[in-house]
Design goal:
- The protein is of the alpha+beta class.
- The chain is built from four helices and 13 strands.
- The relative contact order is 0.16.
Amino acid sequence: MDKENGSSQKAEDFKLKKKRKREREKNMLRKKRRKLEAAREMLEDGEQNKSFKSKSRPHYNLNLLSISVSGQVLPIDSAIFATSNNRGTIIDSGTTLAYIAEEAYNPFINAITAAIPQSVRTVFSRGNQCYLVTTSLDMFPQVSLNFAGGASLVLGPQDYLIKQNYIGDGSVWCIGFQKIPGQDVTILGGRVKEAYGRGGRQLT
């Protein structure tokens, strides 16, 4: 009788172990499925957010009102910079360059080009507006980003120009502000943030 009870108990224990094993396997499959789904969602999010809107990287909205070149406010509708569903101004330290709303890009580039001597040759490099400079950058104007509350960030030429290469005796400097085709988003990246404490060009 005791042997029968012992055999029965062993059988029950064996069934219980098998049941627990099946449950562990099911749980592992569920975890793997969840991981695969999460990975797929991340890939889908990455494809949908290639236009510099990464969910994993924090950014902060700014109330940019206007842009000035050589002290003159550019003829740009301030609504372009206002925060809404599909437009606005953000600061993103994870982005190196600055990106300017498409509607504001041409007035910005044109104002800088108009402010320098006509003897400076304009060139294009990888679709960017560049200049062949044989002297110093002092001929380039200051750029001011004007925010709500009267604060302004003043950028000198070395803050918004990037040296690309050399042609003969000159250096090719390109504007470090690029446009995002089809979007009215302005992103102030790490290069603009560096200007805060450089040479006194801070928010005033």
